[in-house]
Amino acid sequence: PVVFNHLVDQKSVESILVCKTQDIAKSLMTRRENVPDNVAYTITHDFYRFFPAREHTSYRSYYMEVPTGSGMLRATMSNLVQERTEEMQGLEEHLRDLEMEKNEVIKSRKSFEAEKRRAMAEIQKLRKEVANINSQMSKVKSEDESNQSDTDNLRARLRTRQTELDVAEEKISDILEKREMMNNLLKEKEEMFKDNKKQLNELKSATNPITKELRILETRISSKTKEMLNQEKLIKKIKSEIESLKSEMKKNADEETQFESAAKKITKKEVHSDRSLKQLNAKILQLKKKLSMEKDCENIEDFIEEFNELKDRYSKLKQHIDTLNEHLNAIYEMKNERSENILYIRTLITNSVRRKFNEMIKKFSVSTGSEIFLRIDHHNKELKFIFKNESGTHSNSDVSSLSGGEKSYTQMCLICSLWDMMQPPFRCLDEWDVFLDAVNRKEISRELLKFSLRNQDRQFIFISPQGACDLSEVEHGIVSVTEIKKS
Questions:
Q1: What is the mean pLDDT of residues 91-110?
Q2: What is the rounded CA–CA span in Å between residue 451 and residue 439?
Q3: Would you call 416 exposed, middle or buried from its count of C-beta atoms within 10 A (0-12, 13-18, 19+)?
Q4: How far apart are CA 477 and CA 1, in angstroms?
Q5: Angle at Cα 26 formed by Cα 22 and Cα 32, nearest 5°?
Q6: Are the C-beta atoms of 50 and 405 separated by less than 8 Å?
Q7: Which pLDDT band holds residue 449 (cuts at 50, 70, 90)?
């Protein structure tokens, strides 16, 4: 009694669960909805203690010191072994008895099923016989009743017809009620449709003046811009005409001075003509035409040579432009092909990273109760995690719902899947286990060690303030541990 009171009152042994593996304990303690009622904590066979997730905290796990000795009052080890062997023998005998009982139950079940089928066949046969007897009895009754008066037959027929009429009226009333309900529902839907249509029309009518004003403003803006462009073109044209007139006036002034000086050399004095200005201009034009015809006849051979040179130059330049266009088209095609190849390579790399991540996270997904998949969206430049239940439905896509250890494990799988596609000679992680408990640190360190041993042509550097992981199964010389003590 004293030991029992101590265990119940002092140690609260009734609120402690004992699990065989850490995975079972983690699945019970990770999420609040999975935690059994009135549980203080869970202990595993490898001396790990798991505290359940509460309202404001996530689950926690700690390593327990292994107790020295058995910690119990018992006899010698040989007696203990003998007791365990006898207990094992008893359990084996009980298991054999259960197997024999199971086989007998299966045999009896099969016999019962056969007996059931035979009884069902017999019942069907008896039902047919009863139906035949009833038909014969009805025939006999009909023959007996034929001897009765016609009034009784008519009354019976009236009763049957009345009952049939009542049943038909009930059915008609039910159908009318259903029809009325459907009509009411249809009216409600029509009213809702009318209200929605009315709201839509009100919104359209409210936005119509705004759209009209917007269109008017756009047309005004376009017309004003066209007017501005036309005014600018007109200003440029007027400026060019002014410049041409200025140059022509300057040219005329120079010609006037030249003609005046030439005339003074010839006549020695200013000559006043009897002809009018128009007559003089006509005479000057005739003289210019004669002079131009003479010059054209003299310079036609030079003009032909210059034309041929320009024609040859034009053909060479056109051929050069055609070759440049061909080169540009080839470069454009090469650019498109290169961009397609780059997109194809990006798709291959993305699929490889997703497959590697899904392969590494598969073992961890069993403990969380849902599968985790990686999705990379290049269009929106996003990286998402998708969670699926056992039924295949999307449960959640928020990474914040995971615990700290689960987030670290997911991050480790993502880093390793990216490392698998990269080719840097050095891969380094600094203080990767600062916020991890002992259980998650052990799992993540084991996965990182396996990944680094699979890629021994690269150098991996893991910096941790908590010491190295278990290297008992690694060959000597492959992994080196360097400890730096604080000065």
A1: 84
A2: 19
A3: buried
A4: 58
A5: 160
A6: no
A7: confident
Contact 437, 403 (CB under 8 A): no
Question: Length of the chain, please?
Answer: 487
Strands (E) across 336-452 are located at 371-377, 382-388, 394-396, 426-430
For residue 123, what are its two tokens? 């019942």
**What pTM, to 2 d.p., does this model score?**
0.34
**What is the spatial distance between Cα 321 and Cα 343, in angstroms, rounded to a whole number?**
33
pLDDT tens, residue by residue, 48-77? 888 888 877 888 888 887 665 555 555 567
Per-residue pLDDT tens digits for 300-350: 666 677 777 877 887 888 888 888 888 888 888 999 999 899 989 888 988
Give the helix/strand (H/E) hosting 48. Answer: strand 48-51
Q: Which residues pair with 44 in a beta bridge?
A: 19
- Of the CA atoms within 13 Å of residue 16, those in its CB half-sphere come to 12
Tell which residue, 48, 168, 56, has the closest CA to residue 439: 48
Alpha-helical regions (H) of 149-276: 150-267
Closest CA to 414 of 357, 350, 460, 347: 357
**Pairwise CA distance, residues 58 & 81, whole Å:** 42
DSSP type of residue 15: G
392-419 per-position pLDDT tens digit = 665 555 666 677 777 777 888 888 888 8
Contacts within 8 Å (CB) and 24+ apart, 244-252: none
Q: In 59-120, where do the E strands start and end?
A: 60-63
210's tokens: 């705004």
